[in-house]
Predict the structure of Secreted protein.
Amino acid sequence: MSTMRPSRSRFTVQLLALTALTMTLCTGTRVQNAAASPYEDGSGLALRSGATLAPPKILDLGSDPVGISRVVGNRDGAERRTDTNTEVTYELQAAVLFAKDSGRLSDSARSRIAAIAREIEQRAATRVRVTGFTDNLGSSVHGDILSTQRADAVRDVLTDDLRSEAVTFETHGFGERRPVASNATEASRRENRRVEISFVCRAPSPSV
């Protein structure tokens, strides 16, 4: 004679009822609807009868105020521009701007910086940060001095081109600190010898 086993759902209801009774005896607290049959949505997850799922939350991925939106560089890597929602940064290799071990700008460098000054004006920027960097050749003291001289030289051209008291400048020379490449090869050291010009935008890009 075969013995019929209770169904799985009946066993579940009995187990929940026993749990509710145990909690009542131990804590004196009555559990409401503890033995209510669960509802399965097909995903393997169960909801108590009468319960509802919370509405899904939609993530706004476009609201990041500082997320990088675009990075553009020329083919030889001598110049790179990074745009975020609030700031533009130009990264110019020192070889484009200066002779070797020099803090004096070339004539071609002045015209390039003048173009950046025009964008600073168009974007209604009032704060500009100019930062110089070197590779790790030579002493760190020499690198600090040279990178500061180069940052100051770029700032001076921007100041002359903008001729605006509304724009304030911040300059730094970090020498060999904060490299973007390993300094293991001449190609990587060339990447580290650079000047960065950053400004906070208060007006949209004229190309938009």
Observations:
- The chain has a mean pLDDT of 79.
- The longest helix spans residues 140-162.
- The longest strand covers residues 87-93.
